[in-house]
Structures are given as C-alpha cells and as structure tokens.
Amino acid sequence: MNTGLIAIFILLVIIVGAIATRRCVEFLIGGSLVAAIFMYRKDFLPQWCTLIQDVLAENVWIVLVCGLFGSLIALLQESKGTFGFQKLVSKFCNTERKTLLTTFVMGILIFVDDYLNVLSIGVCMKGVCDKRKIPREALAYMLDATGAPVCVLLPFSTWAVFYASLFIDQASVKVLGFKTGIQAYIHAIPYCFYPILTIAIVFLFALGVMPKLGAMKKAYKRVEETGKVYSDASRKYNHDDRKGYEEEGNIWNFVIPMGVLVAIAIATSNLLLAVVVSLIVCFVLYVPQKVVALDDFFNLVVRGFADMLPILILLVIAFVLQKVTEGMGMTDFIISVAKPLLWGPVFPAIAFVLVAALTFTTGSLWGMSAVVAPIVFPLGAAISANPILIMAAIISGGAFGSHACFYTDATLLSSQSAGIDNMEHALTQLPYVIIASVLSVVGFLICGFVM
Questions:
Q1: What count of other Cβ atoms lies within 10 Å of the Cβ of residue 339?
Q2: What is the pTM of this model?
Q3: CA gyration radius, the chain
Q4: Which of 183, 228, 320, 327 could make a disulfide contact with 178, Cβ separation 3.0–4.6 Å?
Q5: pLDDT, tens only, 198-211
C-alpha cells in the first residue's frame, strides 16, 4: 500500500479519535508512533526520539517565545496590573456585545504577528469576558478568528512577508510585471476569501447577528444554567484564576509592559526580543515598588514558563507527526490525486481545497504553502488559470489551516490564552469554519470563471 495513503489514514484516525474522545495529546503521540513504525520499521523508536530532538532544535524560537510569554502573563497577573486594566475596560465593556466588539477591534489593531495577537489579547480580555459571563469558548474563537485571518489581509505582517517572498519567485507571477512580492501580494488580498469571510463572520458574531451554533450554543447554555464560563474539563487550565475585576491594581503595571511588547515587536519584527525586554521592564517596575519581591519575581518567571508546557508538548508532537507524514510522501500523494481534476476555471478552487487539506492534516502552514507553490503555479499556467487567484487560494488555504486545524500553533495558543481545553475550542468554532470554507470555494469558482 502507498505510504502516502497510509499517512492519510493515520491522520484521519487521529482527527476522528481526538474529536470523539477529546484526548488530543494521546492521539497525536500514538499516531506519530504508528507513522514512525511504517516509516522506520524496527528502528522506529530511536528515530522517533531523534525527530523530537530535531523538532526542538528547529523550533527553539517558538518554545522560548511561548514559554516566556507565559512568564510575562504570570508577572502581569501577580502585579494586579491586569485587574486595573480590566476595571478600566469594564466601564466601557458593560455588555456582551461591547466586550466582544472590543476584542474584535484589538484583534484588528494588533496585526503584526498572529502569536502576539492571540497571546496579548487573551491576557487583556479574559477577565473582562468572565465578568460579563461570556463563555471562554467565545473568547477563544474571537482570538483565533482575528489572528491569522487578520495578519494575512494586511501587507505589514509576518505572513505577508513570507508569502510575498514565496510568490515573487514564481514565473507566472513575474510575467504580471509586479516590481516586488508585496505588490503582487496586495493584488491578491481582495480575493483571499477565507480570511475575509472569517473576519466578517466573527464580526457578525460579536454583534450578535451570527447565531450560536453547535457546541458554541451549548457553551452559552452552560453559562446560562450554571454560571460557569468554562467547563469542568478546562478547570485544569485555570487553577490560579481569581475574580480579579474586584481587586485593585495599578493599570500602568499592565499598560507599560504590554505597550513595550507591542512597540518593540512592530519596530523590530522580533517577538522574542520584545518579550525579553517586556520582562526586563516588569522587573524595573515591580521590584522597586515591592509589587513583586525579588525572589518571587524569578519564581514567577519559572512558573509562568511551566504553565505553557502543556501547549508546547502538543506543538512538539504535532511537528514530529508533520515530519513523519511528509517522509511517508503524503503531500505528493494528495497532489497526484488532485492532478486529474485540473481545469482552468476551477483550478483556484482546487488549489484552495488542496492547500487547506494539506495544512489541516499536517499542521504545517508556511511549510505546506512553500511545498505546494512551485507545483500549482506551473500547473495553473499550463491550463491558463489566473495567477492572482492562485496566490489568493494559497494564502486562504494557509489561513484556513491556521484557524481550523485543532493541533496547529494558532489554535493551540488561542485555547491556552483563553484558558480552555483545545478540543472544546476546535469544536465550538467548527460550524463557523465550515461556513467560511464553503463560501470560499464558491467565491473561487465564481471568480475562476469570470476572471
């Protein structure tokens, strides 16, 4: 049997099993081990361990950023600066609609990086949402839907830089006469249907126009009946929660470190540097004020880092699974299956579905885009498909993977930032993901025939 097909079967078992049992970590670990058996035979265990080491070495930046962000969150909470911020924002956010709209607007404003977007807004708005008895699932959805979808629509983000550099090297894009990759990227933005529709849907959700569907409806019903903003399954992520908005806190102990974080991230495009400088600012602010004792400061840094370990373990195992399935030839298999379906007008829609499927099954967003681009652009040129629509399809597929895949980094960080179980987040946003996906395919089909 083709190993690519076996890889797809393993991923389907992981997805179905994780959704059915809500045990994501166990299925990811088990699936990666089974895939390693097919890939490496009797040497599967040593090779699996080597892959873990390789993944940690290749993704040390993510580990440090996420871990140190956990340290920053712990310090902000201990200083009670978050309580001061929540108290101020709560004066305006006195209804569910205003609270969700504020979260939405913050998601639009912090566009430079999806990690910064998700993690910073989560710590800002979690307490405010709790006060208004808004389910944490709704907050997680707001964070995830305004993360990558916003970043890909603005030509000033890390996503834009990556895709622009990827597209400008393609021959079918060069013949259009664009001087820079960003110029080509900007022309594709109006046709990036998935991120546009996702933002429109989450905006309607914030307004209360979009109905509560599926698991999201159940989450709201839980809050209405029990007053619990998160389920019992998510209690383990909230062991240090306090009411917060009833406590006093100096808002500047929150605003200054967060302002420094955002400013340095935008100015330098180095999120790790921004987090480290923010931690130094916290030290300078908190220790002289005796808001946090010197010994407690470093203990909090360690504890906050440790609080991020569950999410980091998920990320590492997801990356290991990605490497094994790539080695089994899953990507080549999916592309070979899609080739007979090629037809110019429908090709952009097929490209979107292909990239979306690959990013969803592998959890590799930029990686899959980089793998697929050199294949789909020449194929599109051969059948006279519009290269601008192909660019938009690849961008949309990457945004879909970031938003929809339940073990990708953005989804995991959104659930962690909101303080809920990852599978609960994935299932509550699923109906909205499906709506945006179906409409995106329709959009690409219409434009494929018109343009």
A1: 10
A2: 0.70
A3: 22
A4: 183
A5: 999 999 999 999 99
